[in-house]
Amino acid sequence: MSLLLPQGQHPGCTKEACAFGELYPACSSTGGAVRRQQDSLASHDKFIAKFGLPFVLLSDPDGTMMQAYGAFGEKLMYGKKVTGTIRSTVVIDPGGTIIKHWHPVKDAAAHPQQVADFLAAR
């Protein structure tokens, strides 16, 4: 399984990525792999090194994949409509079927445990 986590390098996103890093052994033991999309490959390499993440980060600089999964578009930020990344997570089975989609993710800090619990229950 793969998890698609469209995120930027903001405090909430960083907390979420690091929490997924801590939970990665549990997620990967159920066949899960964490992927993060956005920004350049060089930016992802720096992010992985800085936070010691044990997973690969995908790059989707033109946002094609993010838009396909509803992870980029209009949203409310501090009461104003803006266009940008919508925090969400998609679990995709090995055959390419979406089996779970959290859209949008409201609590970046608690969300990785929700995903780990979902994967463990499968």
Task: Explain the overall architecture.
- The protein is of the alpha+beta class and 122 residues long.
- The chain is built from four helices and six strands.
- The chain has a four-stranded mixed sheet with strand order 2-1-5-6.
Set out the fold topology.
Elements: E1 2-6, H1 11-29, E2 33-37, H2 41-51, H3 64-68, E3 72-77, E4 80-85, E5 89-92, E6 98-102, H4 111-121
Parallel strand pairs: 1-2
Antiparallel strand pairs: 1-5, 3-4, 5-6
Helix pairs in contact: 1-4
Structure at a glance:
It is built from 4 helices and 6 strands.
Strand order of the largest sheet: 2-1-5-6
Discrete helix count: 4
Distance between the termini: 11 Å
Main structural class: alpha+beta
Morphology call: globular
Q: Could you estimate the helical fraction of the residues in percent?
A: 25-40%
Computed Rg:
14 Å
Unreliable segments of 5+ consecutive residues: none
The average pLDDT score comes to: 80
What composes the largest sheet? 4 strands, mixed
Order of helices and strands: EHEHHEEEEH
**Number of E-state strands:** 6
Report the portion of residues in β strands: 25-35%
List keywords for this structure.
122 residues; alpha+beta; 4-stranded mixed sheet; two-stranded antiparallel sheet; 4 helices; 6 strands; 25% strand; globular
